[in-house]
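Progress note, project year one: complex with FE2/S2 (inorganic) cluster.
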Amino acid sequence: MSVASPSTAPVRVFSKNPFIAFYQSSIGKKYVVAVTALILILYVLGHLAGNLQIFIGPDRINAYAKLLHDLGPILWVVRIFLLAAFVIHIVATIQLAHENRLAKPQKYAVPGYQRSSTAARTMLVSGVIVFCFVVYHLLQFTFEVTDPRYHQLRDSLGRHDVYRMLILGFRHPLISLFYIVGLFLLTNHLSHGLASVVQTLGINNRKTANFVASGGQTLAWVVFAGYVSIPVTILLGIIK
Amino acid sequence: MNFKLKVWRQKNAVSPGSFKDYDAKDIPSEASFLEMLDIVNESLTGNSEDPIEFDSDCREGICGMCSLVINGIPHGPGKGTTCQVYMRRFTDGDTIWIEPFRAAAFSPIKDLVVDRSAFDRIIQAGGYIVVRTGSAPEANSLPVPKHNADLAMEAAACIGCGACVAACPNSSAMLFVAAKVSHLGLLPQGQAERETRAIHMVREMDELGFGNCRNYYECEAICPAEISATFIARLNRDYAAASAQEALTV
Ligand code: FES
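Model obtained:
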């Protein structure tokens, strides 16, 4: 085993501009990751609430889809805003991870983890897989390129039949399985991420710390149960 | 008691190091970990071999000078410092891995000794208050809420040993900096420089090559002074508030 030569050179040099300097600092970059995470979390919750309308019936979810589509330019503003949050979240994380690798040039011969959860230590892996999952999900249900039939689906009122599209999509066990795995990793990501956002934004304290940690995990699993209920009920033929 | 030791030996900062095997024989169970190493070193010097270099000073768990990562855990098993680990904690015949604190910001000096003066530089960047010297002021003229006094006292318990950095897979010094920023920031004497202190200490920490906190809380788990990771949340908000103020006053 050999040792990396010691780095004595400063890893970071700070700009005179306070905004740039904030981003250059460890805490600043983490703030950016946390704020973008918060935006994405709110989206994940909102998206879940929208999707669960499938259980109210075809009419309800198709009407909801039409409502969103009729927003037109506003929908695109929201989409671009979310995309920007997603990209910034990833870019800042890659920079942080790179700095972290430089900061620990050599690992211990015996790993001695005491407290950190597997979810915490696998944030990068779960993040990458969630990214792939999101890309596939958009290709399938937003751009509808995985199955050309999706475009033609219309309900009796002439609206795009999102209900049928979901049924057709999730009837395939492999697709459903892929979704369940993707959601599981998202849950893993959130089970560390939710509490981390609170800690990084500095709104954690001694009284809230335990609640934040367990509350974050609970919410992550609630999100999992909510989302997974859709492919599972379709696969089991409960909704058809 | 007898142990098999796997000890990191490294001649100096630039030459590569490696693990060497040593037998620790006839070690009394009441020996501390450092005394066990002393015994091994006695026999090494007896055979005119180079003794294993390691840091220690008070050997009472106060100063934070002792280091060592024992079986992957900074300061070894249990809470407290390495000098407070006793061999009875191990089982006879155990193999024990002994490594230095590892972090880019703590450059190796020799064997198990690393240079932790990066912490001194962080303190120099703002871990102090500027006061006029002279006779002590009347204590009651400066009221401190009990809650703040307790929290400040807790943060001030940090002995600056560097185990938080050693334990962190990202070599983050956030627990140390959080403790130092908080113990002054919670007291009235520390208010004047509260913002500049947070900014200067955090940026110094970053410039020295410490990593970014990922909220693993390995630091909290091994801290011999039991500093709470909620001080890191406090540092995060202090730093954000100070940065906002910096941006607005430019
Ligand atoms: S030698 Fe002083 S704390 Fe261990």
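Chain B touches chain A through 63 residues (CB under 8 Å).
The mean pLDDT of chain B is 95.
No further modelling is planned for this target in the current period.
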